[in-house]
Amino acid sequence: MKTILKLTILSLFITLSSCSKSDDSINNELLESDNVFFAKVNGDDFASSSEFVGASYRVTPNATAFVILATDVQSISLTSGKAIGITFSSDKSGFELEKGMVLTPDTPDVFILSGVYTELGFEDYEFVENTNIRLEITNIDTSNKRISGKFSFTAIVENDNGDRITYNVTNGVFNDILYSEDD
């Protein structure tokens, strides 16, 4: 699972690369720009515009899955970059995301709820765990395939030497993100 998630995020970095404040509020210049995905990571601004955000939502008779990945537009290069990924799935028959829904690991019918933050650089870190995560769906338009929400999580990563880094992702917002429906 760690390898698949890591490869997905790495693929997003490669694909997107080729085509601060210390308070808890998002920088107003970022909010007034074309960016559609925001968060604070350990107090630093993270922002992404629509061309650097990918989302997928799928509902089948046996499962539901939602994934959103974003690359920080302030840090994109071929050798470094920052990304946030959020994954949700449920194995309850007919489960669908709805406006106003708040998801946590304790929410009934949540099979997987995971938030990941990663930085590409010279050292290799693996995702270890989320100590908390919250995802709120503030709007979903299934006709036009658009979704908005809020999120926060704490992610812990570890390198080969056992050194750990904790990333506190707060004040996360995604606005009117176009999602695909995988067949």
Describe this structure in words.
The longest helix has 17 residues, at 2-18. Strand 9 and strand 10 (164-178) form a beta hairpin. A six-stranded antiparallel beta sheet has the order 2-1-10-9-8-6, covered by helices on one side. The chain has a four-stranded antiparallel beta sheet with strand order 3-4-5-7, with helices on one face. It has one domain. Mean pLDDT is 80; it is low at 1-33. The radius of gyration is 16 Å and the shape is globular. With 183 residues, the protein is mainly β. 11% of the residues lie in helices and 52% in strands. It contains two helices and ten strands, in the order H-H-E-E-E-E-E-E-E-E-E-E.
Summarize the structure.
This protein has 2 helices and 10 strands; from the N terminus they run ααββββββββββ. By secondary structure, it is mainly beta.
